[in-house]
Amino acid sequence: MAIGNNNEIEKKLWAAADQLRANSQLSSQEYSVPVLGLIFLRYADHKFTEAEKEITKKQPAGSRRKIGKADYQAKGVMYLPDEARYSYLLNLPEGKNIGKAVNDAMKAIESENDEIKGVLPQTYTRFEKDTLIALLKQFSNIPMDIEGDVFGKIYEYFLGKFAMSEGKKGGEFFTPTSIVKLIVDVIEPFHGRIYDPACGSGGMFVQSAKFVERHKKRPSAEISVFGEEKTAETIRLCKMNLAVHGLSGDIKQGNTYYDDIHSSIGKFDFVMANPPFNVNGVDKEKLKDDKRFTYGLPKPDNANYIWIQMFLSALNDKGRAGFVMANSASDARQSELEIRQKMIEDNHVDVMISIGSNFFYTVTLPCTLWFLDKGKKKTDRKDNILFIDARQIYNQIDRAHRDFLPEQIEFISNIVRLYRGEDIETDAGSEELMKEHFSKGKYRDIDGLCKVETLKEIKGHGYSLNPGRYVGVAEKEEDDGDFYERLEELNEELEQLNIEARDLEERIADNVAKLMEGQG
Question: Is beta strand 395-398 parallel, antiparallel or unpaired with respect to 349-355?
Answer without folding.
Answer: unpaired
